[in-house]
Amino acid sequence: MRNDIARATDALYAIPPDLPRDEWVKVGMAFHAADGDFSTFDNWSAQADNYNAADCLSTWNSFKKDGGIGAGTLYQMARQHGWSEGKASQAPSSPIERPRKPAQGMAAADIWSRCEPATNEHGYIVAKRAAGVPLDALRVVPAGDALVIAGQSMAGYLMIPAYAADGEMQSAQFIPPNGAGKKLNLPGASMAGATFTVGFTDGPANLCEGIGAAWAVWQATGQRAVVCFGWGNVRRVAEAMRKRDPTAKLILWPDSGKESEAEKIAADVRAAIAFMPLGEADNFDANDLGQRDGLEVLAAIFDGANEPPIAYPLSVLFAEELPENYEPPDELVQGVLTAGDSSVVFGDSNSGKTFLVIDKGCAVARGTEWMGRKTEQGLVVYLAAESPASVRGRLQAYQKYHGVKVPNFAIVQSPIDLFDGEADTEKVIKLVRMLEAKYGQTVRLIIGDTLARLSAGANENAGQDMGLVVCRCDRIRTECKAHFLLIHHSGKNAAAGSRGWSGIRAAVDTEIEVTDSPAGRCCEITKQRDLPTKGERIGFKLEVVTLGQTKWGAPATSCVVTPSDAPAKKTGKRLGECEGAVLEFLAAHKIGIKKAALAKHFASRYNSANVYRAMRTLVAAQAIHEAAGMVSIAEVAK
User: Fold this and answer.
1) What is the pLDDT of residue 637?
2) Which among 177, 200, 182 has a CA at the least distance from the CA of 44?
3) Which of 359, 327, 332, 328 is CA-nearest to residue 343?
4) DSSP assignment, residue 306?
5) E strands in 209-280
6) How far is Cα 73 from Cα 75, in angstroms, rounded to an integer?
7) Are the C-beta atoms of 346 and 497 separated by less than 8 Å?
8) 505 burial via Cβ count (<10 Å: 0-12, 13-18, 19+)
9) What dihedral do alpha carbons 435, 436, 439, 440 form, nearest 10°?
10) Of 182, 221, 269, 330, which residue is 20 to 30 A from 355 by alpha carbon distance?
11) Which residues contact 512 (CB under 8 A, 6 or more apart)?
């Protein structure tokens, strides 16, 4: 039992007593659980500058054996402060009178003034091979001095003054002459934030746990080394130094076993780290390394110290880090689709949009040109949510017309719900991974046919519904690194663009409108985020392909896309975003509304002048009616 208590006492004195109250209570409960006695706990607590004898006793009496904190917590906390098994204890071997706060004349500066100058012959300096280090600020407690800490006479101990940020001596540390035993701090004088600097006070600041390591770092580098008086004080010192000088170069020198904690501190205060070699025992420090391998090894570690990469909460790239050479967008279909992005192809029913998209998908799957434009070959996944049978027939027509078997083209025939089905999003991503593993190729294009069927149950005019669908499409394309193309329908008012929520257009990188007129069929790039091809028109026509006969003996046909000249563009101005938003609102509102109320509704999105201008444009286009200061959607635009 005596050995167990000695071990617990040794661990206790490795922990600084000037902890936050909840931590101090936790240490007391753990020491109590280890069968520690109040006298030892009281003596240890008295070293803190906020010590209160009555509070210490009442707190100890409140501890219960089954308090939920065991002796293991004591040893864990002690190890966090550099304690290890086998080292001599700084604690007294027998009960002693509890030390009080320093009496008059017992402050750190008073003790320092009556001590003797330190010399290279001091046993601790000899043991650390620190001859030649600056000794002006160091003192040795003279023989016969009355200073006693934790039951030990400090006569012969090396005194390291601990300075506050303002230069005042706030505490001190005492080290036995032979290096044996624990370093003892001056009772009643907090070490929080205190430092002692070896060397000059400018240049890079090397933050070390103890003075032995600081001496070795100064000897090896010639740069200032800052003693933090325990690992638990390093963060506090580093944060204070960073606050005083945002541009200072700080270098942490953690003992072995404290690397992960050092990385956290370094990331928070923007400090570099000088790591000890891998595989060293816990608490192996710079002085140990310098004595064993030479100071030139420490100098090399200093030169190689780097700041850990900053983990910003969001992805950040600084303009100055951009390379000089511009890297153009990665194009999947030359001038039309960019790799890994999103697009929407919309048009009226029977305009030929699905034939056009299938033709484009086959070109990507085969790696052939599409409408005179180059493509990058890859797997194509077609989500045939609207009509799998129709897609199968159109692909059969394509293969028959061109006399080929299209490779790398997968038709998903199961229903897909990207509105009310997070599970379907996961299934699409999993399918892509499985196809890539089977075919040894990357999926480059995912086609969703149609947006309406992929978002069944969603309100097409509601941003909160369609925004969720767009978010899931974005997740699929981002995780799969594939372009996601959505097939969509035009609204009843063709001038207003695609059907439903106007935010769809803003969300995608490319928008393509497919039209069919007496002059011919055409697809026009109406939005292009990264390529200079907005406004380009691609003409096409549909060629009928006979695939067989119906049960009545009639020809069973489908169509394929072939190139054609694009018809001349109709005159007339396309509606802008504000006009589309007004139409969208009026379509959902159904009854007339005062123009002032409409402008107020959009106050957070658009300037009121823009809203009134949009209403005038829509009235001129006969998309809305105006009467007596009220507006309502026209029948043709519903």
Assistant:
1) 59
2) 182
3) 332
4) B
5) 225-227, 250-253, 272-273
6) 6
7) yes
8) middle
9) -170
10) 330
11) 336, 343, 344, 345, 346, 523, 524, 525, 526
